[in-house]
Design goal:
The complex is a heterodimer of chains A (about 525) and B (about 375). By secondary structure, chain A is an alpha/beta fold. Chain A is about 45% helix and about 10% strand. With about 375 residues, chain B is an alpha+beta fold. Chain B has 16 helices and 8 strands. The chains are: A alpha/beta (about 525), B alpha+beta (about 375).
Chain lengths: ~525, ~375
């Protein structure tokens, strides 16, 4: 490696990807009416210069600085491809190695950065000395805090940690002199106001203190003696040495559930020992040498958040997410009524999916994804997925979310949220044992299988609900009675067609319930029209 | 890619380098899109453009416009939006009309893209807007005028947030184009100025409420100063009228709210003008732009609603608390089952618990002695 590449002040030249015109979500006025996807001001026809690079490029510069100078993680496990990648299969367990054909990333750095941009909650897991806390500290510094501020702000989990240690305590003098609770001033801990919050070894925090942490993480406020401090919207980084809760205290389920993404610290590749040697010899402390070019101001972070939220999810991608998400909660044997054919019904009845799924339901259980999990996807999991895919698309400089963004993130977001059915027939197939251990691979295969099925069913072109969606999205206002009756008839025809053409697969259940929803909305509106004369 | 006609093939050959560069740029921006899909779109949509430009434009104006439309075509093919009826109609029909082509040739890098963007921005009203602007091109002297007319059209087709901007743009429009944009193309030209004056003052009026048939018949013979006086009077309302005489000018929202999915009927919490109200559902607040042509609710933080702090006006309250200020109206509203009411900024607005509508009331119009 050359000396200049070692220079820690070196920041990757911008742009780090070919720039593209981003569409900010504007207010709506005449000036905005004619702006949009097509370039009005310049256009390729006029040969104008490419658009200026933005905050996404700054975030990519931060990424490259971290992987080049701070965290030695020479992995590209989040792969993207523009064309079919060259593949090589190795003997032994038959490992396949692909060479990415588009800019690819290391999960250990990328996922925390996405968390930082999206203001979500990330848990680092892995053995000691793998860079978990160091990564979290870097995120604090990227947010504009000094190393000292970040270090003071870190909450170090330990068995004696009290709620007062975590969020603050009443001023002792006020406790004595106050006539009422309102007179007692609280000395809130300073870290509550930070935009990056770090909790080290959170599985060593006592259960009662975990509950206070939960309130802070989930609801964004802390409370002592009827007094409340609202914490600003922030990114959370938690670390745990052992995998998910095997520390001094068990982690309460609700707290686990609030963690959006789990990042595994990867092992050190000894072929990069020269990097390590360089750091030892030069006494490099990456946290002290973060270049100012990659530090974000508060206003920039707000802008990043706005840009992330404005990233469009096109219908084709949204439909694929819907199709994938529909697979897991469904169980045809869970209830008689379609609304209750959910794994929740099984759980509430005190049974498990493996018990229920042992009966025949007329499906090929090698292929049906519903047989592979004990539970379905919660709304929170879907919200998390949508936020992260928007952030990844933004980070990659795309103009909208692509299905590759979803594929890259699904395993990382769901592998602690979907519980594998250990008796699923697919796990008894050759290679199935690996899927019991490697949940990333399991979820990636499940996603690929769902996408293949989506394509096979030709749902982009033959979507039984698409036309009704488009009509309904235009609103009911002013819709004449004759048109309402026509639409109701069309919904009933669609029901008949579906019932005749297909079994009640998971995605069909979602379609049927939506059709039923539309039927009810139109029927209610029709009754209102009749009543209103 | 299916074969294109000889004329198109010849042009593709002439501009091969420029076109390939554009194709590659789009493929870099949308790496998932295959070249075949782009070329198929080109072969399907480009020939009519090549033919129409050849028929309508001098030779030196054809290529810049064709390249601009080619860019647009690639963009929609890459985004898979070519199948949208309005986009397809823009490319296959509207942009091929001679009047539109002549305007586009004067602003090739601006006008086709602007029209495409507006269609997408306007969503459900995009197709109607496209049809109207296609016809408006016949009356537009230049691209600027066409875009200004487009703003008026967008407003008239249900985008009240454009009201002020559209009226500013309308001020500079030729009368025939303005009348066309306001959907009264057959009215006499002097009506354009009168309509502009009245609509600027009162967004709850439509052209047909402003001028009746006898007045329209008399306009051509009316002297200029009389027309000016008439314009001033047409939108007057009797601000001193007793509240019971105020008239309902609009019911905003109708059955399903404002395109929103509210859990329950909203309450009106503030009014900045007769065309700008603020409503809330639970702790969610919305800015409600509304006029005779439509209503749009835009979410906004609760603390950005004017007057929702310590200085909240006393009229922002449930009807039973309104006694101090507009007692009579409050009693009437309460009797009618109102859940909220706001009186101020020249407007009274109220809601009821059985509907998502916001009722808007204004003072009666002052038409005494005015020819209408």
């Amino acid at each position: 490696m050359s000396e200049s590449a070692h220079a820690p002040s070196h920041v990757s030249a911008s742009p780090t990807r070919p720039p593209r015109a981003r569409e900010p979500e504007p207010g709506f006025d005449v000036a905005r009416l004619y702006e949009g996807a097509a370039s009005v001001q310049s256009g390729a026809a006029t040969g104008d210069a490419p658009a200026a690079v933005g905050l996404d490029d700054k975030m990519r510069q931060a990424y490259y600085w971290i992987v080049n100078h701070a965290i030695i993680t020479p992995y590209y496990d989040i792969e993207f491809h523009r064309t079919a990648p060259p593949k090589f299969r190795f003997g032994g367990a038959g490992t396949e190695v692909r060479l990415p054909t588009d800019q690819s990333f290391s999960s250990f750095v990328l996922l925390p950065l996405l968390t930082f941009a999206a203001r979500r909650r990330c848990l680092f897991i892995g053995g000691p000395g793998r860079g978990k806390t160091a990564s979290a500290i870097l995120m604090g510094i990227l947010a504009g805090y000094s190393l000292e501020e970040v270090r003071k702000g870190i909450q170090k989990g330990q068995p004696q940690m009290t709620i007062a240690d975590l969020i603050g305590n009443p001023l002792p003098r006020d406790l004595v002199a106050a006539d009422s609770m309102d007179d007692i001033r609280i000395s809130w801990r300073r870290w509550l106001g930070m935009r990056v919050k770090i909790v080290d070894e959170y599985n060593r925090i006592p259960t009662r203190t975990q509950s206070a942490l939960l309130t802070l993480m989930a609801d964004g406020y802390a409370e002592i003696l009827d007094q409340v401090m609202v914490s600003p919207s922030s990114a959370w980084f938690l670390t745990a040495n052992d995998d998910l809760g095997g520390g001094t205290y068990p982690v309460i389920e609700a707290l686990k559930d609030r963690i959006d993404i789990v990042v595994k610290a990867l092992d050190f590749n000894p072929r990069f020992l020269d990097e390590l040697l360089f750091r030892v010899e030069q006494r490099v402390d990456p946290a002290r040498i973060v270049p100012p070019e990659i530090v974000f101001t508060e206003a920039e972070l707000d802008q990043v958040h706005r840009e992330v939220l404005a990233m469009p999810v096109p219908r084709a991608v949204r439909r694929r997410i819907e199709f994938f998400a529909a697979q897991f909660d469904f169980c045809d044997l869970a209830a008689a009524d379609i609304e209750y054919k959910s794994k929740d019904s099984i759980r509430i009845a005190g049974r498990t999916l493996s018990q229920v799924c042992a009966s025949d339901c007329g499906r090929d259980k090698q292929r049906a994804l519903c047989s592979q999990t004990e539970n379905g996807l919660s709304v929170r999991a879907l919200l998390t997925l949508l936020t992260y895919v928007k952030t990844l698309a933004w980070f990659r400089g795309a103009s909208e979310v692509e299905i590759a963004d979803v594929r890259a993130l699904v395993p990382w977001i769901l592998h602690e949220k979907l519980k594998q059915n250990e008796t699923a027939p697919i796990l008894d197939q050759p290679g199935g044992e690996l899927l019991r251990v490697d949940r990333i691979a399991w979820l990636q295969r499940a996603f690929d299988a769902a996408m293949a099925e989506y394509a096979r069913l030709n749902l982009d072109r033959d979507d039984p609900v698409a036309e009704l969606d488009a009509e309904f999205d235009q609103g009911l206002d002013g819709l004449p009675e004759a048109e309402v009756r026509k639409r109701i008839a069309r919904i009933e025809t669609q029901f008949a067609r579906l019932a005749k053409a297909t079994k009640l697969y998971a995605h069909v259940k979602a379609d049927v319930l939506k059709l039923k929803y539309y039927h009810q909305r139109y029927s209610n509106y029709l009754r209102w029209l009749e009543w209103a004369g | 890619m299916s074969r294109v006609d000889d004329r198109t093939a010849a042009w593709l050959g002439e501009e091969r380098y420029a076109l390939n560069t554009r194709l590659e740029a789009v493929r870099q921006r949308f790496p998932r899109v295959g070249a075949e899909a782009l070329l198929t779109a080109v072969s399907a949509h480009l020939p009519p453009i090549v033919a129409a430009t050849e028929d309508a434009l001098p030779a030196d104006q054809r290529t810049p416009l064709r390249l601009a439309i080619f860019d647009l075509l690639l963009l929609h093919a890459a985004r898979d939006t070519l199948a949208r009826p309005a986009i397809a109609r823009l490319l296959d029909e509207i942009l091929c009309r001679p009047a539109m082509l002549r305007l586009c040739a004067r602003a090739p890098a601006r006008l086709p893209a602007a029209l495409s963007n507006a269609i997408e921005r306007l969503g459900p009203s995009g197709p109607a807007w496209l049809a109207a602007i296609g016809d408006a091109a016949e009356h537009a002297p230049d691209p600027e005028a066409l875009l200004s007319a487009g703003a008026v059209l967008a407003w008239r087709l249900g985008e009240p947030r454009l009201r002020h901007g559209a009226l500013r743009a309308a001020e500079r429009l030729p009368p025939a184009l303005l009348l066309h944009a306001l959907a009264v193309p057959d009215w006499p030209l002097p009506a354009a100025r009168l309509l502009w004056t009245a609509l600027s003052r009162d967004g709850w009026l439509r052209p047909e409420q402003i001028l009746d048939a006898p007045t329209l018949d008399a306009l051509d013979a009316m002297p200029d100063d009389e027309q000016l006086r008439l314009g001033d009077r047409l939108a007057l309302r009797r601000q001193d009228a007793p509240l019971e005489a105020w008239e309902e000018v609009g019911r905003v929202g109708e059955f399903v709210g404002f395109g929103g999915r509210f859990a329950r009927p909203p309450v009106v919490v503030a009014a900045a003008s007769p065309h700008l109200l603020f409503v809330a559902v639970d702790t969610d607040a919305y800015r409600l732009d509304a006029d005779a042509y439509g209503a749009v609710a835009t979410p906004l933080p609760l603390d950005e609603v004017p007057g929702l702090g310590d200085d909240a006006p006393s009229t922002t309250a449930a009807p039973e608390a309104l006694g101090r200020t507009v007692d009579k109206l409050a009693r009437a509203a309460a009797a009618a089952g109102a859940t909220s009411m706001i009186a101020g900024a020249g407007v009274v607005a109220w809601t009821s618990r059985d509907s998502h509508r916001v009722r808007v009331m204004l003072p009666p119009r002052d038409l005494d002695g005015a020819t209408r």
